[in-house]
Amino acid sequence: MATPTLLILPGDGIGPEVMAEVRKVIGWFGANGRPFTVEEELVGGCAYDAHGAAISDAAMEKAQAADAVLLAAVGGPKWDKVPYDVRPEAGLLRLRKDLELFANLRPAKCFDALADFSSLKRELVEGLDILIVRELTGGVYFGEPKTITDLGNGQKRAIDTQVYDSFEIERISAVAFEMARVRDKRVCSMEKRNVMKSGVLWNEVVQQTHDARFPDVELSHMLADAGGMQLVRAPKQFDVIVTDNLFGDMLSDVAAMLTGSLGMLPSASLGAPDPKTGRRKALYEPVHGSAPDIAGQGKANPIACILSFAMALRYSFDAGADADRLEAAVERVLADGLRTADLIGPGGGKAVTTSEMGDAIVAALG
Ligand code: IPM
Ligand code: MG
């Protein structure tokens, strides 16, 4: 079998530091029978500085060709004033849209060693293991028109468009039901059908998809605001949550914080399986951002990015056992009390830098 290719996009802020630790992990797997051909490209503000675009066409071509793309983070105050179309986030959105990565999986798992670190009481988050399935290529992120118009009377009008076709709702809910089948077999769908037409259709299509194809999975519906409230009241009631692009963006940040730190949470964005090869295009990235305030100081937590690579092993390379091994290494290092700056708090622990955390995880791999 040909060596699989990985395209690495470190991006901005803490991105390059955390990606350097992922490179160590990739190196370990390479030395232990699972080699990758690794390429690297620019995305975000650094790409704008180099080419005047948030991602170049050449980098997009490599992303289309790669077996998986690994991205760390984009953006920062340095690019606050660049034109909207080439702002750093546009690079990330182009990757999602052009690769048609409609299914964003955001697991929120509470590591035992960090349960006291959550903003909620230990008993509410201990053992927490939920999966947010966020629609990623539709909704208000991409809907047209998307404009700011000068009304000529001293007023301006901004328009964003929330739009969903039924096929988009059907395919994302099918991913959620499939994921639930190998978990606790429960899906909760969240929308705002009480104020939004797209919510009415969302609710209807998720229910139809369930009834026609996934009757073995338990389905419930919640209004997205109530869902946010329930996530902080009793998060363990959920197994899989399926929701649209914008609600998923917000609810996944809430869910992430329940686990103690945004620095812990990985994500996978997947396309439809290729009809011939069965392969899905895929982008793996931490949920956290570029944290420019702590960039370059060795304070960043590389775990979310490392766990994103574990998701790549599981979903793109059919290497579930290697993914388990990497996740276990992370768990061990946390249980040993190693803590990057974001994890210093209740219970103390041994303060380590970004690079020391990466080294410890590699050492724990064996
Ligand atoms: C995320 C981020 C992005 C989003 C930003 C950086 C455009 O917040 O992946 O959750 O809003 O989708
Ligand atoms: Mg977000």
TrEMBL record:
The protein depicted here goes by the name 3-isopropylmalate dehydrogenase
Does the keyword Phosphoprotein belong to this entry? no
Q: Where in the cell is it found?
A: Cytoplasm
GO MF terms here are: 3-isopropylmalate dehydrogenase activity; magnesium ion binding; NAD binding
Record EC number = 1.1.1.85
Provide the binding site for Mg(2+).
Answer: 225, 249, 253
Q: Where is this site: Important for catalysis?
A: 141, 192
Asked if the record carries the keyword Cell inner membrane, the reply is no
Q: Which cofactor does it need?
A: Mn(2+); Mg(2+)
Instruction: Write out the catalysed reaction.
Output: (2R,3S)-3-isopropylmalate + NAD(+) = 4-methyl-2-oxopentanoate + CO2 + NADH
